[in-house]
Amino acid sequence: MITDLYVRGATIVHRAHPGLKILLLFAISTLVFIVDTWPVLALATVLVAGGYLLAGLKPAHAWRALKPVLAIFAILLIAQLYLADIRLASYVVLRFAVLILAATLLTLTTKVSELVDGLMAGLSRAPGWVPREKIALAIAMTIRFIPRIRAQFHDVRDAQRARGLDRSIVALLVPLVVRTLKDADDIARAIEARSVD
Amino acid sequence: METRDIVYIALFAAIVAALALFPPIWLPVIGVPITAQSMGAMLAGGVLGAKRGSLALALFVLLVALGLPLLSGGRGGFGVFFGPTAGYIVGWIVAAFVIGYLTERFWNRLNIFTAAAICIFGGVVVLYAIGVPWSAAVAKVSVTQALTGSAPFIPGDILKAIIASLVIVTVKRSYPLLGNRSAA
Prior knowledge:
The complex is a heterodimer of chains A (197) and B (184). Chain A is mostly helical and 197 residues long. Helices cover 78% and strands 0% of the residues of chain A. By secondary structure, chain B is mainly α. Chain B is globular, with a radius of gyration of 16 Å. Chains A and B meet through helix 5, helix 6, helix 7, helix 8 and helix 9 of A and helix 1, helix 2, helix 3 and helix 7 of B. Chain B: It is found in: Cell membrane.
C-alpha cells in the first residue's frame, strides 16, 4: 500500500473536522495574499506555529516539508536581494514557508481516508449533473491501482534489464502503458459484468 | 463516458504516480535534475486524448492535494500548491488537454515529428505559459526573471517531450485508442 504523510495523534488539531481545517487554511492563505503586510504575516506565522505545537508535531516534521523547496528559496532570496532589499526578500520567502507549513499541517494531521470521505460526502450533496458515482469509482480505483502499477513498473524494468534495455526509458514506458491499457479493458469488462454502471 | 473511459482515466492517473519511481537524471553542464513525472501529462494527452487525458491528470493532482506522496521525491499534500512552482503542477492538466486535442486533430498524420512538435508545444510552451507567470506572481518577481529562473529546465523538458512522443507513436501502433471510434 502507499503510505500517506499522516502523523498519528489524538490532539485537538487531529480531531478537528477536515472541512474546518481546509476552511482555516484557505482563510489564512487568502488573508496573507490580500492583506499583504508584515503584521498579517507575523500573525499567520504565530497561528501556524501554534497549530504545530497543539498538534504535538516536532520541528523535524516542519523541516521535512520545507526541505524540497530550500533550493528554490535560496534562488528567490538571491533574486529578491538583487532586485529589491532584504526586507522584501525575507518577506517573500517567509510567506512561502508559512503557507507551505500551514498546508502541510492539514496533511500531517488528517488521514487521506478522512479527506476522501469528506469529498464523497460533499459529492453526495452535489447537483445531479455531477457524475458522482463515476468520480467516486475513479478515485477509489486509482488509490487501489497505484501499488499494482508500481509493481508492474518494477516487473517491466527487471525484464528489460535482463535484455540489457534498462537504460532506455522508451523500452520501459511502452510496455508499462500498453499493459496498463490492456488491464483497463479487462477491468472495465469486469465492472460492467457486475453491472455497476 | 463509459466505464472503460473511467478505468483508463484512473489507471493513467496511477501511471503518472508510478513515473515518480524513475530516478532523476542529472543534465550535464546545466546541473538541474530532470524527473520523469512531467512526461505523465504528455503521455496521458497523447494516448488518451484531450478529455480523458486531462481528467487523468486532474485526478492525479486531486490525490496529491488529498495528501498522498505521489510526486517525485515522495512529495505530496496541500503544501505543494502553495510553493513557487505550483503552477507547473496545475498546468499539467491544461498541458494534457492541449496535447490530447492536437493528437486527436493530427491522429492520421501522427508520426514522431508531429508528435514531438505537439508534446513540445503542449508540454513545454503551454506549461511554461502557466508556470512562469504563476511563480512570478507568488514570488514577487517579474515574468522575465521567473522565465530566466526556469530556463535551465527547458532542455530537459524538450528531451522529455521527444521521449514521450516516441512512446506515444509506439503505443499508437500497438494499441490505438483515438482516431475513428465509430468504426471500432
